[in-house]
Queue: 4 jobs
Job 1
Amino acid sequence: MAMPNGGEATANFQQSGAVPDSGRGSWNRQNGGHAAPSQPSARLPAPSRDPSQPLPISVSSLNVGDEIDVFHRYAQDPNGYFMVQHSTSGLLHPSVGRTDGWTSAKVSEAWNIRNYSPHNYKTWVEIQWTHPHWYNRRGHRLDTSNPSMITQRVMPEQIRQRVSESEASPEALARPTLSLLHVRWGGEQPVNPVTEGAGGWGQIGSTPSDNYINGLEDQIFRTLGPTYEIYSCFIQGSEELQRLSAPLLRHLLRGACVGGLYFLWPISFQDGHEFPAYVDRQQLFQLMVNMEATGIPTRFPHQSHLYRIFASKEWTAQMCLHPLLKVPLTTQVARQAVAHNPGKAAGNAMAALQQLSEARSQWNTALGFSQEPPIPVNKGVAKLGWSWEAMDVTAWRNRGELTRALASLGEQPGSLVDLVFVQEWVEFDVEMRHFIVEPNLADPESLKPKQIVYTVFKSKEQGSFRNFDRYDRQGCLQNCYRNDDTALADAEDQALKLIHRWLEWLQAQTHELPTVVRFDIMAKRIGQGRSSIMTGELTELGGCFLGWPKGPQVVFG
C-alpha cells in the first residue's frame, strides 16, 4: 500500500540558505535551538527576472540594533518554525501559518557588504526575529524570550531597511505578486525523501518530502525574488483535512495571483497505516473541490477532476479497446466479488479478459487495423488505483495466483478499495519514460519529450515489482535492444505519435492541458529494425524524475 519510510535527508544549504550545525547531523539555530526535522510544479506568474542571476542587494551596511524587514523562508529555517498571528493557529491541528513572507527583525551583529560571500554563511547578516509568535509543524512554540532561539543568519538579498521603527519598507508593505497555499504533512514521523537507490527519487526527494517542497520553493524565490508569500497547512491525519475552511483560507491570501498545492498522496485506505503523507482520497478531494470553488485554483499536482483521472487509473479499463491508444486489456473486478469468493472472481476476470481479446480483434478488423486473431490471456497483473511506488502491482500466471493476488490486494488492513484492476501480460524489453513539459497541441515542438529515461524492472518480490535499472539511450541499445538502433528509433517514433494521441485525449478531459505529464511506454523489439509498443502509465505532475539530473530545474522552472 505504501513505501517504507525512514529518516529525512537534509537539503543543500547553499541553495536554500539554511545554516548548518557543524559537527552534527541535524540543523540548529545559530547559537542554540531545538533538534530540527530536516528538510514540485505550479504555473507561476511570468518571471520578472532571470532566475540564474543573483538577486539584488539593497543594503550596504547594518549596525547592531537596526530595525529591518526580512523575507523569511521556511526552507532556510533550521528548526522549521513559521509565523502565526494567534497561538492557536500553531498549537491546534491542522496548524496554519505563514511560512514564507516579510516580517520584522533587528540586527544583532554589525555587517558590511565588503565582507559578504554568498557561499560563506558566516558572512551573512546575523539577525534576531521580532515577530512574537512562532510555531513548528508539531505545535511547539518558539521561546522568543531566549535570544539564542530567535537568532539566525540570513542573506542580505532578503533584507530591507525600514522607513522608520514603526513603518515597514515599501516592499514589505506591497501586495504580493503571488500567494500560495501549501497543504502538507505535519505528523510526528517525517516523510522519507527516498533519494537513494535505482528506484529512488534522486536528491530532490519524493513529492511530499521537505526536500521536494524546498526545491520548488527555491525555484520560486529565484524566479520571483521576495515578492510572494506562502501559507502552509500542516496536517497529521486525513480527518484534519475537513477542518480546513476554504473561505477563511482564501481570505488570508493577499496576492495578485493565488494557487493551492497539495503535497500528499491520496489512497483508498483508512488512516493507521503509519506511512506519512498518505491520506484518505475522498477527504483530500473534498478539500480540493472546496478550495477550487472558493477561488483557490489547484496548481499542484492538477485540478481535482484531472488528478482523479490520473490517480484512479480507471482510464486503463475505459480505453483498452481503442486501437490507437494501445492500452493493455483491463477489466475491473468489484471488491464485493473478491470478498465473497476470490476464486470465482479470478475465473470471471480471466474470462472477461478473453472476451476483451476477442473484442479487440473484431474492433481492429472493423476499423481496418491488423487482422490478427484473438490471443489467449493466461497471465497478467493485478493492481490497485490510488496507489504509489508500484506497491500494489502483483503478477499472476494462473487462476490460483490471480485468486491470491485479488485477495491480498483487496483485503488489506484498513482497505476502502472498491475494485481491483486485472490486466493482460505485456512482453517488453524496455519502458521508455517520456517527460512532456508544457504541451500545446498547436505547437508540435512542445509535444516532444524534454527527456526520455529507459528503465527495466530487474526484480520481483513475491510477484510484485520493486526495483529497476535505468539507462540512457546508448545503455538501452546495448543492454535491452541488441544494438539495433533502427528498431529503437522505430519504437521512439511510434511513442511520439502515441503520446500525441494521448494529449489529444487529455484535451477532452480538461480545457487546460496539464503542465507536465510523464508517459511510460513499453517497447519490444520484434525483429530487425522493428518494434511494437504499448501504453504503460500516464503519470501525473509530481511523478518521480527517475534520475533525470535537470528534471527539477526544467519542471519547476
Job 2
Amino acid sequence: MMLTFYWILALLITGTEVRGINLPGCSHVKPQVWYRAISDEEFVLQCALPDKDATNIYNNSVLKQHEVKWFWHQKDKGHLKAVEESFNVTLQGNALWFKPVRENASGIYICMIREKIPCLKIVLEVQTKAKAKCSGYGTNTLYLLAGNGNSIACPGRKCYSHINKTDVRWYKDGRQVEYRKTRNSLQLVDNEIYLKITYVQDAGIYVCDYDMSDNTTQWTMRTAVTVEVIAKTTIHPPNILYPSSVAILEAELGKPLELECRVQFGFERGTQRVIWKRDNKENLNEKLKQFETIETKETSVCPRYLKGHVLRHVAKLEEVTERDLKSDFICFAQNSVGNATAVIQLKKKQRVFFLYILCSAISILFAFLLCTAFIYQHWIEIVLMYRSYVAHNETTGDGKEFDAFVSYAKTDASESDSAFISEEKFALEILPDVLENKYGYKLCILERDILPGGAYTDEVVTAIRQSRRTIIILSPAYVSGPNIFELQAAVNCALEDKKIKLVLIKFQAFQEPETLPPVVKKALRILPVITWKPSISPAPNKKFWKYMHYHMPVNTTKVLGSCSLKAFSKGCSAWNIDSINFTED
C-alpha cells in the first residue's frame, strides 16, 4: 500500500507536461476518484465528478463521446499520452471501456469535458485475483433462463476479505438499479439482485461498486457482470415452413428468379444452418447467390427469438436456363438435433394470353374513359333528351300558372349602351323569343303581362308564387337598385314553397354592395348562375340556352304561344290552351 502511495505522490510532483502534451490547469489538480479493478475482467471508467447519489454513472451517447478527451499517465512510467482505442480499450460516450482491463492499465487518467469538467484526475489500480485475495471469484457472464427466478451477485465482493467494505451499489447499462413499485419482482437483498421473474429486458451490463479504505486511501472497487437471457434449448429439428415437401414454381427463361426457403428453428446456442443445393449437390454454379434474414417479434416475458425464430434463406438465379428447368433445388436446414429438406422445381411459364389480356384491359379502360368524357361533355343534352322521352311532366297539377317570372332592372334609354344588348331588350325580347317560342314555356313579365294599378310589392309576390321558376337577370343596376326586392321576395317564396326555384343569369359583372340583405348575399353564393356572353350567347343553339332549358321545369307538352297576361288580375289562371290566340310570323 505504501508503494502505491509513493507512486501517486511522485506523479503529482512531476506534473503533467511531458513530451509536448500540455494540459493547462491540470498540473496542481489532485486526484478526486480512486478505483480498483481486477485484472482480465471487464471494467468501465466514466468522466464524471464523484457523487455517491448519482443515478447514472456513464452515458454511451455518441454525442457525449465527441465532448470528452482522455489522457493517462501509466504507473512507473513518466510519459503523459492521449488514450487511443485498441483491441481492448474503446471510447463510448463519456466512458472508457476496458474489455478486459490489464494490470499494465494502472495509472492516473485525466479526462476533460468542454465547459463542464476542465480537468478530472482518476487513479486506477489494477490487481490480480491473487493480490486482491479473491476467494471463489464469481463469474462475469451470466445466462439467465427467461421466465424463471434468478439472482445476480457482484463478482468482486469476495475480494479483499481482510478489509471492511460498504454495501454494493448496482447499475444496469449505466443507470442505478433500485426497487420500484412498478417492478416488485426485482429486489436487492444482501448485496445481490433477485429476480422473481426474469424478462428479456433484464439482459445487459451490470456494474457493482462498493467502497473500502486502507491506511491512506478510500477506494471504489468496481466489477462488471454481463447478463444474457436465454431459453431452454430446443429438442426438435428445424421445421421448413416453405416450401412444404415439393413446390413447383413458374419461371421465364432468361429472367431472374429468387428461390425462398423459410425455416423455423427452436432456441439453441449452437450452430444453425440453411443452404440451397442443386440436385442434392452443394457446389452450385456461380449464378446462384444466397442470403438470409431472420424474422422476429418481441413479447414481454419471453421474446419470439428465445422461443425460436424463422430464418428466410434466399437463393437468386440471375438468369433462368433450360438446365434450371430440369433441376431440383433442395433447401437443406440443420441444427444440433437434426435436419429437414424441401424441394422446388421450376416449370416454364406460359405467356399465350398475357398480351391478349393486357390489350383487352387497356381497350376497356380507354372505352370507359372515352364514355366518361362524352357524358361529362354532353351531360346537359343527355338530361334534356331524357326529359323529352321519359321524364314526368312537372307542370301537371301543381297549381302554378307560369313557368317562370322574369325579374330585371329597368333602365332609361339614355343609360343603355347601343353597342350591347340592354337588360330590358334581353328580358322583353330575346328571353321570351327562345323560351316561349322555341321551348314553349310561359313567362310572366310585369311590364308586359300585369295591368298597372295594383300595389307593386303585392303584384311581384303574387306573380312569383304563381310561377315555377324565378329568373333573375343580375347586373350592377340590379344589385344596387330597387329591383333587388324582387330577388329577396323570390328567395322568401322559395323557402315557403319548395316547388319554386331560382335561376340566376349573370348578365353583366357586378360588385356586391355591402347593404345587400343577408338572405340575398347567401342566395348569390349558393344558387346556380348562368353567365350571358354577348358575343356568343344570343344564338339559340348555344350552351347558354341549353343550361336555361336544363333549369326550367320539365314540360313534355309543347306550348305554342304565350298567354296574353294583361288580364292577370282578372283570372288568367283559369285560361286554358283553347282560349289562347296564336300569331304566326
Job 3
Amino acid sequence: MTSVPPGLVSRRIPSQNIVSRLLCRELYGTAHRRNSLNTTRGFHTNIFPDFTLVNVEKPPCFLRKFSPDGKKFIAFSADQTSLEIYSYQGPAAAGDLLQGAGGEFLGSEETETNQRVRNVVFNRFFKLKYTVSVSPCSEQLNRECSLFTDNGRFVIVGSAAFVPDEPHAAMYCMYRNNESVSPNPRNPLEDYTLHIVDIQEGRLCDKTTFKTDKIFLSHNQGLYLYKDTLAVLSVQHQTVHIFQVDREGAFIKVREIGRNCFDNDDFLLSPVLSAASQTSLPNPAVYRAYKETTINLLKHRILVFLYKRAAVLSKQDGNPYELRNFYKFFDQVRWLKMWKMQLLDTSHLLIKYASEEVVTLRSSEPNSQPSYFVVYNIESTEVLAVYENTSQQLLDLFENFCDLFRNACLSLSTGYTSSPSNNIYANLIQQRFKQTIVSAKNGGANEARKRVLAQLPISAQSYSSSPFLDLSLFSYDDKWVSVMERPKACGEHPIRFYGRECGLLKFKIYAGVQGRNPPPQARRLVAFTFHPTDPFAISVQRTNLEYVVNFHVRHDTKV
C-alpha cells in the first residue's frame, strides 16, 4: 500500500451504516454534519433499488407514470381509449417472492421460479382500481400526454383523430384567422379532445374539444398546467387557450390569446368588423377572420414593444441604428409563428416564436433556426420582454433561476429536482456541455447559447423528483438516465450509481433483457419511470416494435 505524500490528508469515508446514521440523527438532529446527509432524503443512499426484475409480464396496456404523491399509477389501455388507474402497494410488496434470489437481477433463465415471479410480480406492486372509458373509438389517447393537478386528484389526458379527407374540411375551419398556418403532410390536421379524470373516484369529469387543429400533445408540449391554470397552444390557429380547472374537475374557459388579448375584444370590435367590409357582394352572410388584413393583437403588441425599445436605444446612443434594424426586420417578425409556450406562473406566458417552416415541421434542423422568446402578461396583456435564441441575458436568467422555469415540484413539499441553479454538479454538467459546443467544429459561444436555450420553453411535469436521480446524493452517467423523463439510448452495460459523499458503488440498474444481443440495425431506446420517493423504478425498453418491461426494486441479497 502506497504511503500518503507529506502534507496531504487521506480522505476519510464517513460511516455508511444506516444504524449508526440513525443513531447520529437521533442524538444530534438533522442539522448536525449536514455534509454526511443525515436528512430524510439523504437516507436514500442506504435504501435504493438494487435488484432488477427482467422482462416482467404486464397487462395489455401502456404504462405512463405515478401520481405526484406516489399512491396511484396510471396506464393507457391497449386500444388507447381508456385510462387504467392502479393503486401502488409499496416498495416491499414482492418481498416474499424474492426470498432466496441472489445477484443483481432476476435472470432470463426459463426456470419455474423465475417464470412465476415474472407472471405475478406486476399484480403484487399494482392493483387495478378503476378502468375509465375516456375517449370515443374514433379518437386515440396520446400515451405520452398526462398532467396531474397539484392535489393529485385529477389527471388531464389528450386524445386525437385525423381529420378525414372526405368530406374535406371547410376553409374557414382550417383558417380561423389571418395567422393560421398552412397544413402539409408532415403537419396533418386533427380533432383533439382534452379529458380530465378523477383518479380517486375513477370517473370522467369533463372534456373540451378542438376541431380541425394542430396541438402537440406528445410530452405535454402543447399543454401547460400551473396550479389550476391550464394553457393550450393551437399551432394551427396561433391561439393560446386559457382554462381554469375548478375543484370539481371542470374546464372553465377564461380567454383566448392571439387574434384577441382581452376576452371582450370581439364585442368591442364588432361594430367595425362586419361582413359587409370584407366583400362588395350584396347581403354578405358571415364575417371571416382569415380575410383580415390587419395585424392581430398579440403580434401588434410584440411589434410595439420592439419599436419602443428600438426608439429608446436609438435616443440613448444618438444613432438611428436600432430603429433602422427594427424597420429592416419588421416583416420577418410579422410573419413569425407561435411554436411552443409555457406558463411561468398564473399571470405570465413564455412563448417561443419561429418561422412557419419550423412550426409546421418542414425544417430538418429546427433548433438551429432563428427563434424568439416573448414574455407576456396575461392579465395586463403587456409584452414584458423579447429575447433572441442567442441572448446571453436570457441564458443567465435560465441558469440562475432554472427551477422557476421547470416548476417541477409545485405540489410536493419535499419535492426536489437537480438543476443548474440549485445543484453544483448539475451546473458542472451544463458548463461542460456548453464548453463542448464552444470547442466543436462549427461551434462557438453563440451556438452554445442557442443549444442551451433550445430547452425553452420547458414542457410541464417532465422532470422526476426521485431522490435516486438527485445529483447531490448520487453520481451517474446522464447519457443513460436523467431527471428529465425522456427516452434515452440503451447501453449494453448496467447504469452504475455511486454515492456522491463516499464515491462507493451503491447500486446498478439493468435496462432491457440481459444476455440477448439485439439486431444490429435496431435502435434501442429505454424510458424510465421513477417513483417520487420510494426505491422503485420501471424501465421500458423499446427495440423496433418489441417492448421489455423491467422493475427495479429494493432487495437486500446480503441478509
Job 4
Amino acid sequence: ALAQQLPDIMSVRSRPFGIRFGAFVVLASSREVLSIPKPTTSQIAMMKRGLAQFMHFSVDPWTAIEHNCVGSNPQCVPPSVFNPTNLSTDQWVETAVSFGATEICLTAHHEGGFCLWMGPNANGYLSNELKVSADEFVQRQLGMLTELLTSYGTNIVSRLWWDHYPSGCGGLAPCPDGSFPAAWPQFVDLVRKLSPSTIICPGPDCDGHQGESGLGKYPTWFPCQPTQANGTDLTCSGHEPDDSLPGFHPYEACATMHNGWFCKGNGTGGSNVYWTPSSIWDHYMNSVGIGWVNTLNAPPGTTGQIPPDLVTNMETFGKALRALLAPVSPNAVVGNKTISCTNSTAAGVGLELDLSAPVTFNALLIQEDLTSGQLIRSYSVDHWDESTSSWIPFPQCSGDSCLPGSPPPSPSIPSVPSGQCGPAMPGINLVRDLPPSCKLVGMVQSASACDALCAANSSCNFWTWHDLQVDPPSWRGKCVLRFDAEYAYYKEADHTSGICNHTLTPNTAGVGVHGMSVGVRLIDFVPETTSSKVRFRCTASLSASNTATIESFSLHRGQRPIP
C-alpha cells in the first residue's frame, strides 16, 4: 500500500519530495575556483525552502527498538511486522503544509536496511544479516537508488539525505569491508546522471547533519575551503566571509520533535513526548531564521499517520509562523535592489521603506540575493523618529537574546542565591524539548556528576541528568546543561535537575538586529516600533564594487506561540 501511495505524496500540491538514505555517503565534483564563490541553482532552491518535514518510518514503531538491526540491537526485526493500520500519505502532506514545510524527507531506507517500497532491489535487510561481498552490497544499493530516482518520475527528487556522511563502515552503519568509503563516487555519479537537479545534503552539496539539536550558529557564512579526495570534493570547512575561499556550502540542521527518532506504537501514551509549539518556534528562529535549512522529524506511528498531538503542535506553530511572515502592510516590502555598502548615515544611503502612514512592527525579514555569492559582511537597520526628525538605529543583539518572547520562569522552581548551586530535584526536567540554549555535554554516571559540570561552568544556570532507567535507552546517563535565564518546569520520572545561579538575569530577548551575515533569510526581532520609514544599510561587502543586492526587505509583526 505504501508503494502505491508514494507517487501521490510527490505530486500533491506540487510539493518537492526528499528521500533520506541511512547508509549512503558521497563525494562531489570539484568546483571551478571563482573570485567569489557562488551557489548552484539547486543549493539556492534548498536554502529558500528552509523548513523540511523529516519522517522516520520503518519497522521500529512495532518494537521498543530505536536503532533496528544495528548497534546494540544487531538482530533484525522481521519485515513482516510492518503493517500500518490506517496509512495516509495525504495526512503527511497536509500536515507539512500546515506546519510550513515545503519538503518532506522520508526514510525510504534507514540504517537497519528495511526498505519502504517494493521492487527487485528492495531486499529487506542489506546490513549485517545478509552475507554478501562488498561489490554485491554496493551494486544492490546502486540498484535501489536507481529505482527511487526513476520509478516515480524523472528528476523530481529535491534532495537526498545521506546519514553517516562521510564515514565508512561501522557502528550504526555496518557494511562489508571494502565497500565504503571507496564506493561513494559511484553513488554521486549515479545521482548526477539520473537526477541532476537533486541536491545531496547531508552530502557533498552542503554542511549537513550538524549534530541533532536542530539549532544553527550565527553568523552564517557559506564560503568555505573544499577538502578533496581522488579529485573530488569531500567536505568544505573553514567557513568565513572571505572571497578567496573557492567553495560554497549551505548549512543544514536536523532534530526530532519526538523523544526518539521513531514513534513508540501508535504515538500515544507516556512513552511518546513531543515538542511544544514554542519549542518548535525557538528552533526555527535559531536555524531557518538565520539562513540555515532545518529538517525536523515528525514520525508516523503504527497507524501510518503522524500522531494527533504532534500534528496539533505543528499546526499551532505553523499558524504563528504564517502570521509573522505576512508583511504588516502591502507597501511594507521593498526589494530587488542593488545598494552600496558604506558606514555613511547620509540621506539616500541604503534601502528605505517609505510608508504612506506609520505602521507598527516587531520583526524585520531580510533576504540577500545570493546568485552572485554571499556579499554582505555587516549591516544595520534604523527607523525614522518623527519627534526628533532623525534616524534611530535599532540596537544589536547577540546569541539567545536575538530570540523573541521566552516565557517567564516557573514559580515552582526554588530561588537560588547568585553564584551558588541549589539542591538536586529528583523527578524534574528543566531541559525538556532541548531549547536553543541547551548543550548535551556527555554521559555521566550520576546526577551529582552532572551538577558538578554545571557548577564548573560560569555560564551554566540549569542542568538535567537522564538517569539509567530513562527511555529511550540512548538517553540514559546523558547530562544536559542550559545557559539561558528562562526555564520550564516539568515533573518527569527518571530525570534529576538542579540550578546553579551563574547568570540569572532578566530576560532581554527580542532587543535588536543580528548585524553581521544576512544570507538567504534573516529574521530580526526588535522592540515593538511604530514608524513611517525604516532603512536597511549594508555596511560592509565582499564585492569589489562594495555593493550587495537585496532580494527583499520587509516589516512584520508576530508572537511566539504559547506554550
